[in-house]
């Protein structure tokens, strides 16, 4: 890899570290190509990505970035899993680590906060952005539905009374 390619990789990694909601670092030593492709597919389905890079280049890219605290984790065969959604990558990585003992979570970052393996698990248990949006919409919509029901109830009662009176008058 020549100097220009290295500079490009450092720039790409820098953008990943700045723009991602969460970055998880893990060891993947001993994993097969098929297992790595499975991890990539799961991450892609969740809206995230997986990136393998040289630790030296990643450390250079981390300088001055919000996730600089994870530099000590970059030893051995490391892989970065990241997503814009602060929960998606952590959920996928946590689930994958439970099924593959060769995939070991080392930690990561969420914004400026450093995460240890327990922190990654805790983030993985949080609801995703879509789940939070759905619950907020439900909370906002519930009072409106109750209000519409309360407004419509008297009219329905009056209509019921009128139809009963009509039936009695017709009989």
TrEMBL record:
Keyword Ligase in annotation: no
Q: Which residues form a coiled coil?
A: none
Q: Name one GO cellular component term.
A: ribosome
Source taxon at top rank: Bacteria
Is Transferase one of the keywords? no
Q: Which key words tag this protein in UniProt? A: Ribonucleoprotein, Ribosomal protein, RNA-binding, rRNA-binding
Question: Could you tell me what this protein does?
Answer: Forms part of the ribosomal stalk, playing a central role in the interaction of the ribosome with GTP-bound translation factors.
Q: How does it assemble?
A: Part of the ribosomal stalk of the 50S ribosomal subunit. The N-terminus interacts with L11 and the large rRNA to form the base of the stalk. The C-terminus forms an elongated spine to which L12 dimers bind in a sequential fashion forming a multimeric L10(L12)X complex.
The similarity annotation says: Belongs to the universal ribosomal protein uL10 family.
Q: Which NCBIfam families match?
A: PRK00099.1-1
State what protein this is by name: Large ribosomal subunit protein uL10
In which organism is this protein found?
A: Rubellimicrobium aerolatum
